Amino acid sequence: MSVHIELPRELRPLMKKPFGRLYRGKGRDTVEKFAGELSSPTKLISVGDVTTFHLLEAGIVPDICIVDDRTKRKPVSRDVSARNRDNVYEEVSVDNPAGIISDELIRSLCEAFASDKYLRIFVKGEEDLATIPVILLAPLGSVVLYGQPDEGVVLVEVSETKKEEIRALFEKLICKNQSNELNKIRRILDGHKNP
């Protein structure tokens, strides 16, 4: 049975606020603004097709990229899709409908963080909410990059303080979606391997 956490309509405005530092701009120029801050993160994770594309074009290869071949709910160009299929990556495919965080996505992230391979998680559905479990599961010292539509790229440094902030947001989601299965997901996101 598939378990998922749905983003309630009343919590959607919370997702529009950047979780980290917003670097305004478009494309390669934006990447150049923060590239110097990427010295040696524990893991580098990119969420979103356009962000991943511009990182790869700039010669920056995320350890994990999460893409869905869409941007602003429309298909990405062939160039973006092809570049994001860089042969450095092994691909994992997961189902994650729009407005949802699925247990399948969470389990694939757990496996990705436990692996030393470069992984591309291809989401059938939508990857917009993936940033929440990514920050909760990423090792301390990691950097998460994701696009802020029509504004730029957000850089999140994963610290204990940042995890606590995101955990509080996640708890609001869980409260709206209570079940025993969701409590298992909560335990995984809190770092317990076997809930």
Number of strands: 11
| Gyration radius from CA atoms, angstroms | 16 Å
Beta percentage is 15-25%
User: Total domains, how many?
Assistant: 1
Q: Spell out the helices and strands N to C.
A: EHEHEHEEEHEEHEHEEHH
Give the low-pLDDT segments.
none
Helix/sheet category:
alpha/beta
First and last CA, distance: 16 Å
What's the shape?
A: globular
Description:
The protein has one domain (19-158). The chain has eight helices and eleven strands. It is of the alpha/beta class. The radius of gyration is 16 Å and the shape is globular. It has helices at residues 12-16, 27-34, 49-57, 78-84, 103-114, 131-137, 160-176, 180-189, and strands at 4-6, 21-24, 44-47, 64-67, 70-71, 74-75, 90-96, 100-102, 119-125, 143-148, 152-157. Strand 10 and strand 11 form a beta hairpin. The model has no long low-confidence stretch (mean pLDDT 84). The strands form three sheets. The chain has a seven-stranded mixed β-sheet, sandwiched between helices.
